[in-house]
Amino acid sequence: RSNSEIAFEVLSAENLILSNAEFKVNANTILLNQTSAKFESCIFDSSAGYAIKVMNGSIQVNESSFRSNALAIDLDEGSRARIIQSQFEKNDQAIDAGASAELALSLCIIRGGRNGLKIGNYGTAEILSNHFEELDGYCLQLTGPHLQSILLKQNIMTQTGGILNSKSMSGDIEISNNTFASNLSGVNLHAGTLKSLDHNIFYKTTFSDSDILDHPATVQWNCFDPATREDHPEGLGLNNIYADPQFDQKYYLQSQSPCLQ
């Protein structure tokens, strides 16, 4: 369906399923209120507003595509989303999760466009095994003063405006087993919210706030390249590597990498 103010609106439903649907050139595409829905192999293209907006409900999105939308997925306060093996390309904002929303994102590609994910006050997010690349802004923004928990694990983030920018003063952030390469900015957060920063590779990615690296018990088993005194203070623990990780062209480690020794 195309050229509609709202292409599809549901006021209340349980276990709604949309499969192999294609939506193009709408002002706003799908509005769900008090609805649980599942999207399989759907295409959302060129929405001037949102592609999917969830109010007081939940969605699961599998193997779907979001391209050239102003906002791909809008999660209203308290809503939930689980998104798997989907692609977000050239959207102004991939996902905006409001206060107390819950987001699980895995095995997805977020490429091109302006911004990646935005998590609101008291939000929760599990961001696992995704690939972020060529974004103008940050991959992940935490906009509220408080958060519940953020898990950033096994992601690749390359050629973006930054990894993480957080305004939260309380909550837990875990950053583990990620590859960060050629990003303009790194991790900017309140040190008290960093639960762990371990087994990550930071390649040509400068920290916005190097003070967070002054906690050896929290920051360990990472690889930093280039390693400068300004980026990596002397107080940093000894369980980190300061060497070229030796990537291949797709940012996977080659067999001789010091990270594998």
Description:
The chain is an all-beta fold. Helices cover 0% and strands 50% of the residues. It has no helices and 29 strands. It is globular and about 55 Å long. It starts with 5 loop residues before the first strand and ends in a 36-residue tail after the last strand. The relative contact order is 0.08.
Strand arrangement in the largest pleated sheet: 2-5-8-11-14-17-20-23-26-28
Uncertain spans: none
Helix share bin? under 10%
Largest sheet: 10 strands, parallel
- Tally of DSSP helical segments: 0
Indicate the radius of gyration in whole angstroms: 19 Å
For the structure shown, list the relevant keywords.
single chain; 261 residues; mainly beta; 10-stranded parallel β-sheet; globular
Short summary:
The chain is built from no helices and 29 strands. The chain is mainly beta and 261 residues long.
Topology, element by element:
Elements: E1 6-10, E2 13-19, E3 22-24, E4 28-33, E5 35-40, E6 43-45, E7 50-55, E8 58-62, E9 65-67, E10 71-75, E11 80-84, E12 87-89, E13 93-97, E14 102-106, E15 109-111, E16 115-119, E17 123-128, E18 131-133, E19 138-142, E20 146-153, E21 156-158, E22 162-166, E23 170-176, E24 179-181, E25 187-188, E26 194-198, E27 201-203, E28 219-220, E29 223-225
Parallel strand pairs: 1-4, 2-5, 3-6, 4-7, 5-8, 6-9, 7-10, 8-11, 9-12, 10-13, 11-14, 12-15, 13-16, 14-17, 15-18, 16-19, 17-20, 18-21, 19-22, 20-23, 21-24, 22-25, 23-26, 24-27, 26-28, 27-29
